[in-house]
Amino acid sequence: MILEMLNPMHYNLTGMVPEAMPAATMPILLLTCFLLLVWSYEDTSLIPGPGYCMGIGPLLSHGRFLWMGIGSACNYYNKMYGEFMRVWICGEETLIISKSSSMFHIMKHSHYISRFGSKLGLQCIGMHENGVIFNNNPALWKAIRPFFTKALSGPGLVRMVAVWYNSTVIHLDKLEDVTNETGYGHVLNLMRRIMLDTSNVSLLGIPLDENAIVVKIQSYFDAWQALLLKPDIFFKISWLYKKYEKSVKDLKDALEILIEEKRHRLSTDDKLEDCMDFASQLIFAQGRGDLTGENVNQCILEMLIAAPDTLSVTVYFMLLLIAKHPKVEEAVMKEIQTVIGERDIKIGDVQKLKVVESFIYESMRYQPVVDLVMRKALQDDVIDGYPVKRGTNIILNIGRMHRLEFFPKPNEFTLENFAKNVPHRYFQPFGFGPRGCAGKYIAMVMMKVILVTVLRRFHVQTLTGCCLERIQKKNDLSLHPDETRDFLEMIFIPRNTEKCQEQ
Ligand code: HEM
Predict the structure, then answer these.
(1) Where does heme bind (predicted)?
(2) Which of 238, 367, 435, 437 could form a disulfide with 430 if both were Cys (CB 3.0 to 4.6 A apart)?
């Protein structure tokens, strides 16, 4: 009622004012006019979204993000207001977009190379103007990104295939380390260890305690996820964020010891060219005064967490999906046998594994790990007819886009969705353009090598009730889903033995 009263479209104000006004009426009228002005703010935007309602709208929309989680809130708003809509986060206008044409425009153009997130939250996790993933200072990001691109593509990639293969074999040989007394394995942990080991061997090269670091990485993700969109007021109450601060410190301290060891080795080793990996390049850049020590440490941290974060969960989802779809498993195994036979996988095989590739793509489409991308507009622009002001925050809801456009059976897991060539703009699990995933090529090769190595040795079966629907329900579709912890166990049955009956 109050909101309606304040709406000039519904009432004729002159009719509401009696001829002889009592003294108190004037201030009330002025206040009403002021509120009307504030109220009318919402109508200035052409973009659909909830109303401003004297500042209540921004509070409610940010509250919804904190309450539902980023992924669920984005899906809620897109469903409610359409695939190009506007909310507020931390009082700032934020677009949520799940339309392929708009997404393509944003990913392609260089005036969207920045991201957004709570400055205090990013400071707390060490990402504010440091590292690459959430570095929102375009000049600094531009200086750092080439270190990542160089390490994750080109000739280094060929050498890494042997590293990934060997690491997977070694970890599969000691499967008992992640298996409980009933024979079920904590597959996500297994994958995290493989990813951490391969990243470390190829990018830092200092022996580490995998188990301890994997646990610290998970806590770091929890902190990242929890703090990314927190309002500033949250950081005024220290006991609220203390535990996150501690998780961040734990990982940073553990990695600092390794990085110091690397610095020491570089300063004492004569054959420097043999150790010119990612970490060495950064340490030398620090020596030249191009980067700060803090930045070098953060870059190494981000490089070491990137694969255990994304790839391990993606491969874990793939194993769940293959366990549920025997026909897909059959097609994948047939191709592996035809292309590779009994020998070890080589880089030349990777391109020929087309069914495996479709399986990977369909898994990433159907059960994504990263389904949201955050960007910021650095210039005024017009996207699909909507004016977008400089400074606007943008969330690209890729997970939703992958279920809305192009695919013949969007809500089913089927290789038919990739039977035909899928135009670039309709499938973007890694993003693209200047700020796209720096590890997209390496990730595809890694997933193929690891999947092929696991599947040739083992048939995978899940615990009864360990099904994706439950994970999907629980999972917030967040940047770093951790809600899968209740549903982790799978059993690895060596090939050539009888399949277990589902219990
Ligand atoms: C299944 C695996 C992976 C998925 C689905 C994935 C997805 C993504 C997405 C969607 C982004 C944001 C892109 C954008 O803003 O347009 C991103 C950024 C990034 N990814 Fe990946 N990623 C994966 C694996 C990896 C791996 C293995 C690495 C490195 C070892 C990596 C390194 C990075 C980096 C450094 C960025 C930040 C790039 C920047 O801001 O300049 N990713 N990833």
Answers:
(1) 437
(2) 437
